[in-house]
Design goal:
This protein is an alpha/beta fold and 208 residues long. The chain has 4 helices and 13 strands. The chain has a 5-stranded mixed sheet with strand order 3-2-1-13-5, with no helix packed on it.
Length: 208
């Protein structure tokens, strides 16, 4: 594409103030892109311009399409959780990367006589859309909206037969209560997010 001024037979001698104002007007009107405006050569003025004039001439026009923070163009490091801390008294789960808190969620915990175990553990199992087996009847509930494990399962404790972990729930109105058989119930949106932030071997600390 040939720029407007490149069609002239000879260079036009313009003052810096006039030329800058002309190009800015074309740019803001949409006739020139920023790249085109930068590519056009302007003959230097015969004498220096006053400081206040040159400063005004080179000032960038207001443009919402220009991002003034270069950091926004830099790739962002993915959020990862290296350690989970469950505080039973708060009924709240925290995810950390080093010493930095990355996420925090409200949860439901084990009820009386089925308390969530305290101590240090690691994530040993992850599963999307898990099936659930009733601990007493052996009935298997397939994945779906009525599955007690919700959309994700993250196991962190087992005795070899039974397991305890973080999982979703169809009963999100019970989040914040002590109602489970030891597992940690989460909102489905929260456990889906957490599932993607952790990995097998992630440390889990459960505090009273």
């Amino acid at each position: 594409m040939v720029s407007f001024l490149s069609r002239c037979r000879r260079p036009i001698r313009l003052s810096l103030q006039t030329a800058a104002g002309f190009f800015i007007s074309l740019w803001m009107a949409g006739s020139l892109s920023l790249g085109q405006a930068q590519a056009v050569a302007v003959t230097p003025p015969d004498r220096p311009l006053p400081l206040e004039v040159s400063t005004a001439a080179i000032a960038s026009p207001p443009n919402n399409d220009i991002v003034r923070d270069p950091a926004l163009f830099l790739p962002q490091a993915p959020r990862r959780v290296s350690r989970l801390v469950l505080r039973l008294a708060e009924r709240r789960l925290y995810g950390y990367h080093g010493d930095n808190e990355i996420v925090a969620y409200d949860v439901a915990i084990g009820r009386d006589e089925w308390e969530t175990p305290t101590g240090a553990f690691t994530v040993f199992q992850q599963q999307q859309h898990p099936a659930w087996e009733h601990p007493f009847t052996g009935e298997v509930v397939p994945p779906g909206p009525d599955n007690p494990l919700g959309a994700r399962w993250i196991g962190f404790w087992t005795d070899g037969t039974n397991a305890i972990g973080f999982h979703g729930t169809p009963d999100e109105h019970l989040i914040g209560e002590a109602v489970s058989h030891g597992c940690v119930r989460m909102r489905n949106a929260d456990v889906i997010e957490l599932y993607d932030l952790i990995a097998l071997g992630t440390a889990v600390v459960v505090l009273p």
